[in-house]
Design brief:
Helix content is 76%, strand content 0%. The chain contains 16 helices and no strands. α4 packs across α7, α7 crosses α13 and α8 packs parallel to α12. The chain is globular and about 85 Å long. The two termini are 43 Å apart. The N terminus is likely disordered.
Length: 406
């Protein structure tokens, strides 16, 4: 009897080990399969498989349009309200009357703010590689205003053509002094709108992680999957990048509002992780968005703005050009185009329509324009690749579901 009990126990232990080994093997195979699928998606790019990439991009676009159409139809009362409001505002816009000057003023401000909010959203929303709109648009705008303020000794640029073109005012107070605060006040609206746009662009990771946690469904996002894997292996993390991500996650989880505010207030490439962390741990929406908005649109924006203004202040720019000229052998040849560019910009500030031919374009500005075009084109290509990879992921998931049902 005792021998039978021992024999049964041994058999049960052996079966449990076999089941454990089987589940471990299945898990290893699953991980290996996911790794191969991820590599397959990463290889689906326009410059390797152009026809398949474009086909998948078009199919994913159709699916997204269908999804959004269904969502809008489900909320048709809200859509109808917005349409009625749009019709009322359009009628007000075209009807002649004393209100037209206020309508035109509001139109100018709304479009100006919407432009910078849109650029901020594009910078952080996670479409493709992301478009670095601070470097391409806001930074150069602040630098132009700074250089013009010191040259004109004023920030009262005539409107129009400002902000499309900066020209010195006809009457300048020679005794007036230009301070950092004066220039910061001049560009505060566009800078804060851009910062608010970047805060809005951080919402998708938050909503995705929150929905996945509440529903318990497997998320369709690789960053969230990596986040969960990072939490599982937190104790054994060795590399610097993983430890940095865990530090951000711990700061937000323990400190809450002020932890989010601290992460949002400094240039932080890991802030996407903050949105995923807050969504995963069900941090209230207004706690997350309020801290992100204050951090990005107020604190961080003033830090970046101050840095650009100081960098492009008159004496700093002159010192930088002098330092370029001091480089042995190539210094003078490198210094010349920068001097020509600065002189051309100063001449443009004093140029008036009808004063003769405008100042010719410098090759530095030509190069910068081409760099902007190349970066925008690469951003568009990255969106096409990303959407094609999303469609391929749908195919892989469907294939996996069919294999499970067999």
């Amino acid at each position: 009897m005792a021998d039978n009990v021992v024999d049964c126990e041994q058999r049960r232990t052996t079966m449990n080990k076999e089941q454990h080994n089987g589940s471990f093997t299945d898990h290893s195979l699953l991980i290996e399969k996911k790794k191969k699928e991820r590599e397959e998606r990463q290889n689906l790019v326009l410059w390797r498989r152009p026809l398949i990439t474009l086909q998948y991009f078009c199919l994913e676009t159709v699916i997204d349009l269908k999804t959004w159409t269904i969502k809008l139809w489900q909320r048709r009362s809200i859509v109808l309200s917005f349409l009625m409001l749009f019709v009322a505002l359009t009628s007000l816009y075209y009807i002649e009357g004393a209100h037209q000057k206020y309508v035109l003023l509001m139109e100018k401000k709304i479009f100006w703010c919407a432009y910078w909010v849109g650029l901020g959203v594009l910078s952080s929303v996670g479409l493709g590689t992301g478009l670095h709109t601070f470097v391409l648009y806001l930074g150069p705008h602040i630098a132009s205003v700074t250089l013009a303020a010191y040259e004109c000794n004023s920030v009262d640029f005539p409107e129009p053509p400002y902000p499309d073109e900066i020209i010195c005012p006809d009457e300048i107070e020679r005794e007036a002094t230009i301070s950092l605060w004066t220039i910061m006040s001049k560009v505060r609206l566009e800078a804060c709108m851009w910062g608010a746009g970047t805060a809005v662009g951080e919402l998708p990771p938050y909503f995705m992680a929150r929905a996945a946690r509440l529903s318990g469904a497997e998320p369709d996002d690789e960053e969230y999957v990596e986040f969960e894997e990072m939490l599982e292996h937190a104790e054994t993390a060795q590399d610097f990048a993983t430890r940095a991500k865990l530090a951000v996650q711990n700061l937000i989880q323990k400190v809450g509002f002020f932890g989010i505010l601290a992460c949002a207030s400094i240039p932080n490439p890991l802030f996407d992780l903050a949105g995923i962390t807050c969504g995963h741990f069900l941090v209230p929406f207004w706690t997350f968005f309020g801290a992100t908005l204050i951090g990005k649109a107020v604190i961080k924006m003033h830090i970046q703005k101050l840095f650009v203004i100081i960098t492009f202040s008159k004496h700093i720019v002159e010192q930088m050009v002098s330092l370029i000229g001091a480089i042995p052998s190539v210094g003078p040849s490198l210094q010349k185009p920068f001097q020509e560019y600065l002189e051309a910009q100063r001449a443009k500030l004093h140029h008036r329509t009808g004063d003769g031919a405008a100042v010719g374009e410098n090759w530095l500005s030509w190069v910068f324009e081409k760099v902007v075009i190349i970066m925008v084109c690469y951003f568009v290509l990255s969106i096409i690749n990303s959407m094609a990879q999303s469609y391929l992921k749908r195919i892989q998931q469907q294939r996996y579901s069919e294999e499970k049902t067999k």
